[in-house]
Design a protein that fits this description.
- It is built from no helices and twelve strands.
- By secondary structure, the chain is an all-beta fold.
- It has a single domain, classed as 5 Propeller (Tachylectin-2, Chain A), CATH 2.115.10.20.
């Protein structure tokens, strides 16, 4: 299969469930994010609320857990936590999570927190040395001006720069959701900084394709 629409093999194929939770589970199977280690291993971080953020290793061929008995690691816990992603930089794995409430327009309380670890499986500590499993989390980005509830950090390179993308709610536009992109930089201790705003996305109305 390919995602090139011009190719005859274009299309998605359902290979089944990677992970699932139900009303009896101690966490939610939402917000998956994939990370590749410098050695080429694939891992998936996901989860929200209750016992928090989880991680397990993936089989690069199937896209599923590398083996049925492969462990699931707990990385971070908070009463309101989700939207995790992991970014590798200069010998550390940085775990980004959201605290607070999403999806409430200008009443959203989302803010992005971070901790780091030498190992992808943790422990992840914040700038003050507090484990994210014990409520730690250094603030990276909070509501600022008319940009309310920033969340769901993701990272990508462009023209030799590291960029941080996230969504937020615009108090100047009736609380509509928008995309923000900032330059990502690092302080002398190796902690990430959300730099100047590069761009904010325009509104794209939802469409449906049957």
């Amino acid at each position: 299969p390919t995602l090139n629409p011009a190719d005859s093999g274009y299309g998605w194929k359902d290979h089944g469930i990677v992970v699932q939770t139900d009303e009896h589970s101690d966490h939610n199977a939402i917000d998956p994010a994939i990370v590749r280690t410098p050695s080429g291993e694939l891992w998936m971080v996901y989860g929200s609320y209750w016992t928090g953020i989880k991680l397990f290793r993936l089989d690069p061929v199937t896209g599923k857990r590398i083996s049925p008995d492969a462990p699931t690691y707990s990385l971070a816990r908070k009463e309101q936590i989700e939207a995790a992603s992991i970014y590798y930089h200069d010998g550390y794995y940085y775990l980004f999570v959201n605290w607070g409430h999403c999806c409430r327009g200008v009443r959203s309380t989302y803010n992005i927190r971070v901790g780091r670890s030498r190992a992808i499986t943790g422990p992840y500590l914040d700038r003050d040395g507090v484990d994210l499993l014990e409520g730690g989390g250094t603030l990276l980005l909070d509501s600022e001006g008319s940009a309310i509830g920033p969340g769901h950090a993701a990272f990508f390179p462009r023209d030799g720069q590291e960029l941080l993308s996230y969504h937020f709610y615009s108090a100047e536009d009736n609380g509509r959701a928008k995309l923000g992109v900032r330059r990502l930089s690092w302080d002398e201790q190796g902690w990430p900084l959300a730099g100047e705003l590069v761009t904010t996305g325009s509104i794209v109305e939802p469409t449906r394709r049957d």
